[in-house]
């Protein structure tokens, strides 16, 4: 069962698919709204290319001054989480462009603290980004912050945008600090999943990712698996030969390909499913069986993520598309 649209003052239904924006079954997305979505999404995804272009032409004084002004913004502190920023109409057009919808399989425990582990990263984590714009609506009464690749906070405007959405660099100290006061979301696969786009299957990088498991155990935070169906189809990147290079340096290098061969996200639906929480008992970092408990919880989480995917893939039209955990 699906709900076309859920106003903010209505309690979130459990087990039902909810569309973030009102669906226009007969008219579709208005042309002017699609134009706004496409132009702003293009600037967002192509921003690193735009910066590189500006750097190349720094010999021209006006461009040099512009570059100095842009990069100087990285040096100044930025407000962490700005709720009003999430209300920008631009984000409404983005969610409409991707027909963004979501479902919670279970009601969350008000007394629990969660680490929200999101998959897949895809070439760009558009699903997690759209979810971030709806935090007050999807998680009413909860404080939800997030962590992202440190390189994002060294890029002009990206730093401001992600900070205003409640995102901070993904290092252990920051993660610990955020978890002491809020639920924390993380796209676990990170840059390592950027090249994992296949026509015949979904693939996520989880086999070697245990940092979030360790944080959950050390803090007694429950794990909340999330899968963004469709996120892997938004953009592609190549050549694949750059995959190991990007993983080692934890940077994204390559040619983005989307709609019309441009770095413009394809207009595909994205369906976010929030799975059943994996309960976690606190185990201290210095406990002699800490690593054993990490391995046990990691296996338990993998099984739950696989279960979440298998139970919901048919609703998205992917009944014959398997999930491979690498």
TrEMBL record:
<keyword id="KW-1133">Transmembrane helix</keyword>
<dbReference type="GO" id="GO:0005789">
    <property type="term" value="C:endoplasmic reticulum membrane"/>
</dbReference>
<keyword id="KW-0472">Membrane</keyword>
<dbReference type="Pfam" id="PF03982">
    <property type="entry name" value="DAGAT"/>
</dbReference>
<comment type="similarity">
    <text>Belongs to the diacylglycerol acyltransferase family.</text>
</comment>
<feature type="transmembrane region" description="Helical">
    <location>
        <begin position="63"/>
        <end position="82"/>
    </location>
</feature>
<keyword id="KW-0812">Transmembrane</keyword>
<keyword id="KW-0012">Acyltransferase</keyword>
<feature type="transmembrane region" description="Helical">
    <location>
        <begin position="35"/>
        <end position="57"/>
    </location>
</feature>
<dbReference type="GO" id="GO:0019432">
    <property type="term" value="P:triglyceride biosynthetic process"/>
</dbReference>
<dbReference type="GO" id="GO:0004144">
    <property type="term" value="F:diacylglycerol O-acyltransferase activity"/>
</dbReference>
<keyword id="KW-0808">Transferase</keyword>
<protein>
    <recommendedName>
        <fullName>Acyltransferase</fullName>
        <ecNumber>2.3.1.-</ecNumber>
    </recommendedName>
</protein>
<keyword id="KW-0443">Lipid metabolism</keyword>
<keyword id="KW-0256">Endoplasmic reticulum</keyword>
<keyword id="KW-0444">Lipid biosynthesis</keyword>
<dbReference type="InterPro" id="IPR007130">
    <property type="entry name" value="DAGAT"/>
</dbReference>
């Amino acid at each position: 069962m699906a709900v076309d649209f859920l106003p903010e003052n209505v309690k979130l239904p459990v087990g039902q698919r909810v569309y973030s924006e009102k669906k226009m079954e007969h008219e579709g997305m208005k042309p002017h709204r699609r134009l706004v979505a496409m132009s702003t999404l293009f600037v967002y995804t192509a921003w690193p290319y735009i910066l590189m272009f500006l750097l190349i032409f720094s010999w021209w004084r006006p461009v040099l001054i512009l570059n100095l002004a842009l990069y100087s913004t990285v040096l100044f502190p930025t407000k962490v989480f700005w709720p009003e920023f999430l209300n920008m109409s631009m984000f409404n057009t983005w969610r409409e462009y991707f027909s963004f919808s979501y479902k919670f399989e279970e009601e969350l425990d008000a007394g629990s603290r969660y680490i929200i582990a999101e998959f897949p990263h895809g070439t760009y984590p558009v699903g997690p980004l759209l979810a971030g714009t709806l935090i007050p609506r999807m998680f009413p009464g909860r404080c939800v912050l997030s962590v992202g690749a440190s390189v994002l906070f060294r890029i002009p405007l990206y730093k401001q945008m992600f900070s205003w959405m409640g995102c901070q660099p993904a290092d252990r100290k920051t993660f610990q600090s955020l978890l002491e006061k809020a639920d924390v979301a993380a796209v676990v696969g990170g840059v390592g999943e950027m090249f994992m786009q296949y026509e015949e299957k979904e693939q996520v990088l989880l086999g070697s990712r245990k940092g979030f498991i360790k944080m959950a155990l050390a803090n007694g935070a429950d794990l909340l698996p999330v899968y963004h169906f469709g996120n892997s189809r938004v953009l592609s990147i190549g050549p694949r030969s750059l995959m190991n290079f990007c993983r080692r340096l934890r940077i994204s290098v390559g040619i983005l390909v989307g709609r019309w061969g441009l770095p413009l996200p394809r207009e595909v639906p994205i369906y976010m499913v929030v799975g059943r929480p994996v309960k976690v008992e606190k185990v201290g970092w210095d406990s002699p069986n800490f690593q054993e408990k990490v391995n046990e919880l990691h296996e338990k989480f993998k099984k739950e993520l696989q279960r979440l995917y298998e139970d919901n893939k048919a609703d998205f039209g992917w009944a014959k598309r398997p999930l491979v955990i690498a």
